[in-house]
Structures are given as C-alpha cells and as structure tokens.
Design brief:
This protein is of the alpha/beta class. It has 10 helices and 14 strands. Bound molecules: nicotinamide-adenine-dinucleotide (NAD).
Length: 329
C-alpha cells in the first residue's frame, strides 16, 4: 500500500480525499494543526499527526515512520477577506510555510506533490471559461499567496527534481454521500452551506450581493465542483505523476456554472424549506462569471465529474447539514 501524506487532512476537502484514498487502497497519513480542521473528520485508523507543516523535524519523522512516498498538500488559510486584512499572515501561513514544508519533503527524498491551488490565482478573467494559460493576476493576497507557491515549484523542480501538479479548484461544494463528512468552516463564507444554514433556521436568510451583473438573472455565476470529484482529481493527478506525465497546472471545475439565484432555488426544492433572501449591493472584486475551462484535466488526466450536478451537490450537503446541524461537535 502506497503511503500518502495529506497535509490539512482534517479539513473539508482533505478529509474527503483521505476517505477516497482509503477506498482506493492507499494508506493516507494526516498532518494537520487543526487551526480550521476537525479531528473528528479524520477516518478511524488513519495515522494522524497534530502539528504544523512548517515543523521540519516532525515532517521528516512522519515521512520516515510512515514510509511516505507522495504528498497531497491542502493545509492553508483560505479566507479571502481575512487575507486582505492580514496579507502577511497569508504569505507566512501559505507561502513561507509551504516552502519550508516542501524543503523538508525534498530533504526526506519525497518528490511527488499535489498542491491545492485556486481559481483566485486568475483574478478578474479576460476570457470565460478560463483556460490554464490565462493571465494570472490575483486581486487578493490569498490568491497571490497561492500563485507564489505555484511559481516557486518550477524552480524547485529544476534544482531538486520536484514533481508537482497544482490543481486550481473553482468552488468546492457538496459532501460525502452518506452524510458522514461535510463542510464545517468557522466562519463559514461559502454560499451553499450558508444557504443551508438559512434553511435550517440557523441564519435569518441569505444575502445576494449584486443583482445587476451581466448574467441572465443578474446574479453571479460560479463553477461548483463536488468535493468527491475534487478528491478523485487528486488521486488521478498523483497516479499521472507516478507514470511520468510531468509537472503542471490544471483547472478543476465542471466547465459550466450556476447563478446565485439558481443555487438558492435548487436549495428550496431539495430542502422543502423557506429560505429568505436579502438583496444587497455588489461586493468589490466579484466578477460576473467564473467558469473553468476543463479540457486539459479531462484529456491529460482522464478526469470527469460524476457528482457535480447542482442537485447532487445540494442534496449531499443537505444530508450532511441535517445529520450534523452543529457541524463536527
Ligand atoms: N474550499 C474551496 O472552495 C477551495 C477553493 C480553492 C482552493 N481551496 C484550497 O483547498 C485547500 C483546502 O481547503 P478547505 O476548504 O478544505 O479548507 P479547510 O480550512 O477546511 O482545510 C484546511 C486544513 O489545513 C489545516 N492547516 C492550515 N494551516 C496548517 C498548517 N500550517 N499546518 C498544518 N495544518 C494546517 C487546517 O487545520 C485545516 O484542517 C486549501 O489550501 C484552500 O486554499 C479551497
């Protein structure tokens, strides 16, 4: 069994990927400092090390003890608003600590790495759907902190033979189909869990920021990707690197999008609950549409989404919220 170190494996996307790795016969090993993650989300029997990715001694010890051969690196801070208030925190936590983490891995002769990047590396797109070779011009420190890491990898590849794939996710959403895992961010900033919390009566309603965008119903359109499809993309990327596909950047999205109003309407249908809406002014920096061009990942990694219809996304997330109205307690 190949042993895969999953940094941030107690987080939302990380915990679903750990579960998928187990299902596929891998041996995941989790490193997480629980700054935003939940120990309860780590599957039973999976080796769990509570610590920081910047702790070189710990990272080297884990690699040696668990015979780690490759890494999936999720650990990061990812609140866009917080990043604008504290850019230095994001450059430290995301960029500098990832650099230290990768150095420790390379010292331990671990050279295969899959990295959680983001559509925020593009900024306001000139072209939609957005191809991987579109200009990268992040409009917040979060996106910039991730772009700097991506760019550093090419140099680490030249110098030390790092083999890497950066997956630029669009909007991760949904939950494990059995309701055992799901999204539990504090604070929650993502649209679907916020809508479902309104459906549960935990929030008064949901705000729509801007109803005058250049879209059919005037609200922003985003590309939502089910967390299980995202998990699968990581495993395909890992396997492709193992077969020598070479390093690179891939979008992970569906190639189509849904508007905020469409998401709310689907949530009303799935939950059968009332979801009050408050129409608010636009927020700065929100483009009309963010949709991934996905030809590259489909062609080169053979990936395609299986769970990412809006209904499947909302249904799985609703199952999670109904079973865990207070998240991981
Ligand atoms: N959720 C999305 O829609 C989305 C979109 C694009 C990219 N991403 C990226 O995907 C990754 C996972 O996102 P998520 O939504 O699962 O976030 P999350 O906050 O649920 O998970 C991140 C995990 O990393 C851990 N962590 C953070 N800093 C750490 C450190 N220094 N050392 C050890 N552990 C640390 C946290 O405790 C947490 O468990 C992040 O890198 C994020 O930037 C997420």
């Amino acid at each position: 069994m190949e042993s895969i170190l999953v940094s941030g494996g107690a987080g939302y996307i990380g915990s679903h990927t750990v579960k998928t790795l187990l299902d596929r016969g891998y041996k995941p090993v989790v490193l997480d400092n629980l700054v935003t993650g939940h120990w309860q989300s780590v599957a039973r029997g999976v080796p769990f090390f509570q610590g920081d990715i910047a702790d070189s001694h710990l990272v080297r010890r884990i690699v040696e003890k668990e015979h780690v051969s490759a890494v999936i690196h999720f650990a990061a801070r990812s609140l866009v608003g917080e990043s604008a208030e504290k850019p230095d925190l994001y450059f430290e936590e995301n960029t500098a600590k990832t650099n230290r983490f990768v150095s420790s891995l390379l010292e331990s002769a671990v050279k295969r790495l899959i990295f959680s990047s983001t559509a925020a590396t593009y900024g306001i797109p000139e072209e939609v759907p957005i191809p991987e070779n579109a200009p990268t011009s992040p409009i917040n420190p979060y996106g910039f902190s991730k772009l700097m890491i991506e760019q550093s990898f090419s140099w680490l590849e030249k110098a030390y033979g790092l083999e890497w794939i950066a997956l630029r996710y669009f909007n991760a959403a949904g939950a494990a189909l059995d309701g055992s895992l799901g999204e539990d961010h504090i604070p929650e900033t993502h649209l679907i869990p916020l809508i479902l919390k309104a459906a549960l009566g935990q929030r008064e309603g949901i705000s729509i920021f801007g109803t005058d965008y250049a879209t059919p119903d005037g609200t922003c359109i985003r590309d939502y990707i089910h967390v299980l499809d995202l998990a699968n993309a990581h495993i395909l990327a890992l396997e492709a690197l193992g077969k020598g596909i070479g390093s690179g950047v891939y979008n992970v999205g569906t190639g189509s999008g849904y508007s905020v109003r469409e998401v709310i309407e689907t949530a009303r249908q799935v939950t059968g609950r009332t979801i009050p809406v408050v129409e608010s002014p636009r927020r700065p920096g929100d483009p009309d549409r963010l949709i991934a061009k996905v030809a590259k990942i489909q062609t080169l990694l053979g990936w395609s989404p299986n769970y990412s219809s809006l209904e499947q996304i909302v249904e799985s997330a609703w199952t999670w919220h109904l079973r865990h109205p207070n998240g991981f307690e």
